[in-house]
Specification:
alpha+beta, 2 domains, three-stranded antiparallel β-sheet, flat, DUF2254_membrane, DUF2254 domain-containing protein
Amino acid sequence: MKQFFIRIRTFYSTLQSKIAFYPSLISLAGFMFALAMIIAEKEGISRNLIEVFPLLVVEDGDTALSVLSTCIGGLISLMVFSFSMVMLLLSQASSNFSPRLLPGLISNKRHQIILGVYLGTIIYNIFTLFSIETSEEKFTLPGFSILLGVIFSIICLGAFIFFIHNISQSIQINNIMDGIYDQATKKLNSTINRENKTETKTIETFPDTGNWHSHTSPKSGYFQNIATQNIINICKEKDIKIYITVPKGLFVLKNIRVLKSDKKLDNETVNAIFSNLNFARGEYIQDNYVLAFKQITEIAVRAMSPGINDPGTAINSIDYLTELFALRMQKNDLGVFSEKGTAYIKMAVVHFDELLYQVMASLRTYCSQDPTVAQKLIWMLAYLKQQPSIEKAYMEAIDEELKVLLKVVSFDSEKDMKTIQKLADNILET
C-alpha cells in the first residue's frame, strides 16, 4: 500500500510540472460550480436575494445577456493575451539564458492558477448564460448566478494586474536564479539532515561491491526518484544488500547494468526493486540538486558567450554557485541508506570533485579571458577553502581546480595577470 502511495505522489509531482494542470482543475471546478448554481436557482436562491438586496439583482433578461456576453468576450481576450505573455517569457528565457530553465518556468503555480481562474470564470459564465430565460418575470432570471459571474470577472481583472507584475518579475535573471537556488537548497538540506541521522560506523562498514551480481535496467530514462523505505523492506525480507551504480539525474539506457546485489536474486525480486526506481524523460531540481548547478552554470556560460557578453550576470551566477558549493560540502560522498544500524542500500553519487570539475570546466572555457570573472572564480575557490570542518578530499579538489584555472587564464594586461597570480598564491598558501 505504501508503495502505491509513493507512486501516486510521484505521478502527482509530474503532473504539477505541466502548464495545463491547475487550469484544468480550476476549469472543472468552474463547470461543477455552474451546475450547482443552476440547481440552486431552481430552489429559488435568487428570489430570496431580490427580497433582501434588490439592487444587486439584474431584473432584465437582455441586460443580463449583454453583461455576461461582455464578460465572456473580455475574459477570452484577456486569457489569450496572458497565454501569449507566458509563451514570450518561455521563449526569452530559452534564448537568453538556458532551455533547461523551461520546466521550472512552466511549472510556476502562480501562472497556472491565474490562467485557471480565467478559464473557470469563462466556463461558469457560459453555462450561466445558457440558463437565462428571456421572460418578463424577473424571478425566472438567475440573478444570484449572474451577480457571481460579474464578481468573478472583476476578480479576473485583479488577477490580470497581478499576472503582469509577476511575469515582469519572473523574466528577471536574479529571480530565476533565486528560484533555482531555493529548490536546490531545500533538496540539499533534506539530504544532509538524512545523512546526519545515519551512524558513521554503519556507513564505513558497507561491504565492497566489486564481485556482486549485476542486474540490467528494464527501461530507459533519467533516474529521478527512489522509494528508499520500500527497497529497505525488500532487503530485510530477502536478507540482501544492494548497490545502485548510477547517481540521480543520469540518463539510464535500457539493458545497462544499474543494480548490484550481494546475493543472486530471482526475477520477481529484481522486478520489485526496479518498480521502486522512477525513470522519467525530464529532470527536476526537487529530485536532483545537481541539476541546479548545471542550470546556473549554463546561465553563466550563456552570459559570457560572444553573442550576449554579459559578465555581470556571470558574476551573479558564480555567487549562487559559491553558496551551493558551500552547502554541498556539508554532504558526504557515500550515499548509504540504513535502518536501525544496518546499511542496506548504497547509491552512486556525484562526488564533490566531479561536480566542481564539471562546473569549472564549463566556466574556464568562456571566462578565462575576462579578469573580473576569473577573479570571481578564484574568490569562490578561496571561500570554499575557508569552510569549517572541510574534508581533505574536498580541499585537494579545490586546490587542483585553482591550479588548472591559473594555467588557462590569459590577459593582455600584465597588471591583470599579476593581480590574479597574487590572489591565487595567497589562497594556495592557506
